[in-house]
Design brief:
The chain is α/β, with parallel strands linked by helices. It has 3 domains: 1-26 and 106-202, P-loop containing nucleotide triphosphate hydrolases (Rossmann fold, 3-Layer(aba) Sandwich); 40-98, no CATH class; 213-392, Beta Polymerase, domain 2 (2-Layer Sandwich). It is 49% helix and 13% strand. The chain has a 5-stranded parallel β-sheet, sandwiched between helices. Strands 7-9-11-10 form a 4-stranded mixed β-sheet, with helices on both faces. Helix 3 packs antiparallel against helix 5 (77-101) and helix 6 crosses helix 7.
Length: 399
């Protein structure tokens, strides 16, 4: 099963995307619909709301008067917190029930208006955000009967564009004709969601891409934060720390479009114990790499052991390295990152090697051969990095 979070600001066109995904075969769970379901007449939640906010929020027929409740909670943080405390746990329980009822091979789309505001992004394999300019959203809301001032107030009470971009794996721009939006959703379904679901279900990493160095992407750090939050959630108490490592962690540095993450765990036994949870979260074990290669300066393979997972998402390559803190592999990954961040000459040297090797190898076996071809540079660079650490007093981050 693939869990997809869908959100967007009011008037963005989220419902249009949800409807198209259902047409394509998705199982939709609509948070707004569940929110209405838990406060139906006679429900315990409605009784609690009446006790908290008074009888005026109930219609003569015994139903919840939603506009009356909205007037009481809009702009009142405490009232909104009380409302959420009554309704959210029940909505959460109902959501889990509906997800459990979906087929094992389903792509479940959870339509949540406040996904970003409530910090739910790490719960999903992928988050889709639908967006449109504010003036267009106001125009759409006016068409639904809201006045412009009310529409703008509601928009500004929700998450900002920057907050949504932090959560978004996919940003769907609904500025142009609806046909363009639907075509983009169709491509997303066939090229990413369907193969991603299959990879999660079959515990199979996405096919590797040829090792090709590209220009730096300013989204890499944000992507790493988002993926790291999912890894930590899946790892639970076993996950001590997540770090963005590798070339994409060096600002402004050309690299393969692959996010490398290092998850710190107390032991390899704990790493093995969370393998299934990581796989279910979209990061299955990758048999193509069982552990680190020892460097010539420290040839003992026992010092460099790790566990290795990759992403099942064909749209976002990820290498996930599980290591025990304090080991040379763990320390070296952090040292080389920080040394490259600090030393322009080191970056220039490394980039020359990367550019020379870029595009030389095909996808099959290419990643391993690309890594092997860089080993001589790393063997020479590691003493330089260690000397820099000694000179500057560098130490690894605290756990």
């Amino acid at each position: 099963m693939l869990r997809v979070g869908l959100s967007g600001g009011i008037g963005s066109g989220k419902s249009t995307v949800a409807a198209r995904l259902v047409e394509l075969g998705a199982v939709l769970i609509d948070a707004d619909r569940l929110a209405r379901e838990v406060v139906e007449p006679g429900s315990p939640a409605l009784a609690e709301l009446v006790e908290r906010f008074g009888p005026r929020i109930r219609t003569p027929e015994g139903a919840l008067d939603r506009p009356a409740l909205a007037q009481l909670v809009f702009g009142d943080e405490q009232a909104r917190a009380d409302l959420n405390a009554i309704t959210h746990p029940r909505i959460g329980e109902l959501t889990l029930e509906r997800m459990a009822q979906a087929p094992a091979d389903a792509i479940v789309v959870h339509d949540v208006p406040l996904l970003v505001e409530n910090g739910y992004a790490a719960n999903y394999h992928l988050v889709l955000i639908v967006d449109a300019p504010e003036h267009e959203r106001v125009r759409r809301l006016e068409g639904r009967g809201l006045d412009a001032a009310d529409a703008r107030a509601r928009i500004r009470a929700q998450a900002t564009d920057e907050q949504r971009r932090e959560a978004a794996d996919v940003w769907l721009d609904n500025t142009g004709p609806v046909e363009e939006l639907l075509a983009e959703v169709d491509r997303l379904w066939s090229e990413r969601l369907v193969p991603f679901e299959r990879g999660v279900r079959e515990l199979r990493p996405a096919p590797r891409r040829p090792p090709l160095v590209v220009e730096p992407d300013p989204e890499w750090p944000r992507t790493a934060r988002r993926l790291g939050a999912r890894v930590l959630r899946a790892a639970g108490e076993a996950g001590m720390r997540i770090d963005h490592i590798g070339s994409t962690s060096v600002p402004g540095f050309p690299a393969k479009d692959v996010i490398d993450l290092q998850l710190s765990v107390r032991s390899m036994a704990e790493a093995d114990g969370i393998a299934d949870a990581l796989a279910e979260a979209g990061f299955p074990p990758d048999s193509g790499c069982r552990g680190d290669n020892p460097h010539p300066v420290d040839p003992d393979p026992g010092h460099w052991v790790k566990r290795y997972h990759s992403s099942a998402d064909p749209g976002r390559p990820v290498n996930l390295h599980l290591r025990v803190p304090g080991g040379p592999g763990w320390r070296t990954a952090l040292l080389l990152r920080d040394w490259l961040r600090a030393e322009p000459e080191a970056r220039a040297d490394y980039l020359a090697v990367k550019r020379e090797l870029s595009g030389r190898f095909a996808a099959d076996e290419g990643v391993a051969r690309y890594a092997e071809a860089k080993e001589p540079w790393f063997a020479a660079a590691l003493p330089r990095a260690r000397a820099w650490a000694e000179r500057t007093g560098w130490t690894p981050p605290e756990l």
